[in-house]
Amino acid sequence: MSGEKKRILLLATGGTIASGASERGLRPEETGAQLLEHLGPLPYEVTVRDILTLDSSNIQPEEWQLIARSVYTMREGYDGVVITHGTDTMAYTASVLTFMLPGIDLPVVFTGSQLPIGHPLSDAPENLRTAFAMAASGEPGIFVAFFRKVLLGCRAVKVRTSDFDAFESVNLPPVAQVSADGLLVRRELLPSRRSVGCVLRDRLDNRVALVKLIPGVDPALFAALAKLGCRGVVIEAFGSGGLHFIRRDLVSALEGLVQGGVAVVVCSQCLYERSDMSTYEVGRRALEKGVIPGGDMTTEAAVTKLMWALGQGKSPMEISDLFARSLEGELTVAPAT
């Protein structure tokens, strides 16, 4: 019936939004039900499940798997899912769920806050209301709702430590915004949905390292990563994907990783626009050695996509193919010429 309330599942995981003061600083303590009490009456039928009580700095691949499995197994009978989560690693969790739940068949919306919900000036109520509205929208996907905006989960990056406008959507505009007209969804920005239905692919390999280059970095660092058992490396290179090869030859070091079966993905340290390693010699040399370009993916998306691909047992060649394609909207693919 058209008059029935939308059924929303709220999964609480902790974070600042649920935090209270302790002798050692803020720590999560409020339950999902207590969060709802701060909002008053809502036009939805909300079911609450507390699955974690953690600061998001403590949320790691094992927790990602728990969250993904909870969404997958509990989603039946609901119109959408809201997940409360700490802001510090929210972009990583939203990105990895994008890959772990391909073909998700309902909206899954992450949100949190910069101040605990019990603070009189907290941004939590507004963020929660935005998240519930997106969860009730009927638009399937993994999203982040913050500061009256809704971002595609695999494009979200936390860019401010304390400002309420904490997240930005990188290389893709917000997919929805709240205005006086309500929640306005830009459907043309949403990735094409698959017709095969949602599946759970939650295996991950966290033997992945992230390296931000600085001028003069010792190439021996990469050999050390291989000795430590890394199966994948994401590099934040200079500009459009440059790596120095004079005096300290990073290109040869990366070639050694590739020959040893390690998947090497190169992104840019620049937050916006895509890396293009074919432009300069300092990038082309690395491409010729088998490194994988990350295009305009966020670091969070590149790292979690690599963990996920390795967890699926993909070879470096198969991973290279995956990184050339946008699976769920994480990558802007240049049109064929």
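The above is record 1. Record 2 follows with the same two-line structure.
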Amino acid sequence: AILILKNLNIPVKAEYLYNFEPFSKILKMKEIQTPTHKTTLIDDTHNASLPAMINAIKAFDTQTEFFKGNKIIALGKINDLGHKSRDTHQELIPYLSNSNADYILCLDDDLRPVVNKIKNKHITYYPNKELMINDLKYLCNEDSVVLLKSSSGGTQFPEVAKTLPNILAKTKLEANFKDLFSTISNNGKSYIIVNNDTNEIEEQFNVENSMTIEGMGPLVYYMNAIDVQVPNEELQLKEWVTNNSNFFTGKTINVYELLTSMSKGPHPSESYELADYLFKNFANRKKYTNSIIANYNLSDSIATNLTGRFRVKERQSFTVSDLLSIYNDYKYDLFKFNNAFIIGLKYKSGFIRGFNKTIIFTSFNDINEAKNLLNDNGGN
């Protein structure tokens, strides 16, 4: 800028530079003291190009030997790549695959194909910054180091870098922390007990921290089946990647049998089949899912993948308050085929209706515990 002024024969006055500040030092390390430990952030979110992102990953690798805790790379997209965005981001695959990172967290749709192609790494795609920040606060353990890298615009990722230090400064980590997703599920265990007659909440537990590692995709498809008053047609199970001896290609089942079975805890092949039957294509399914997200003010993390099942590579989540919102509108239809609707394999979430009360819950290890809570509260 100064050279341009000089070339135009415009005097350069000292006051022009009075408030000038250069960008922060590239790859500047910032040590964060939490209530229980120390962690180090490398914030390089002021700008990004493919060479700059590759250089940041390489620079991160040179520093990891000096840290005993988790080595973490968190990325947002490279902005302004236009139609070349997908192919350009693919060039990060070998550098991330060979990096020293124990965990790789990726935001933005441009990076989702990268996540799916990287093998033998704990790498996860995040649909939004809030979920990424939540997981980072657990991963940033004693003497950990985190590279934060993205473009400065076109992505929410710089807000991760801006918010994370304040979150970490208040985060206490348990000394016995081991697995990210089991910790999230245990901390996200919650329930609400509702009176069937008055619809009033009679008891609740840990609602403010409610969280899951599963999505509610199967519940969304069930809601659509109710909305369109789907007929009880006979189906033959198509060939899905999750098929097994119980859910095999060509298995005959009618729609109501499928809905009844899904309400007890949907198998991924059942979710594939119902979604295929109801929507015919991805665009229709996405449109309906987005309408549910908008109508109930839900996070886009409720349905990151189609089946709702937990996968390390696709982070998703919902809360007990989300379930309550849906319950208020689908109070009777939820139990049309069963007195419960259960989501999740290892960790159970959903609804169980008793004679007097209904329990709405997230992230229970054992569904019987939810049933016992309901019975103890007069829900028989």
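The chain has a mean pLDDT of 94.
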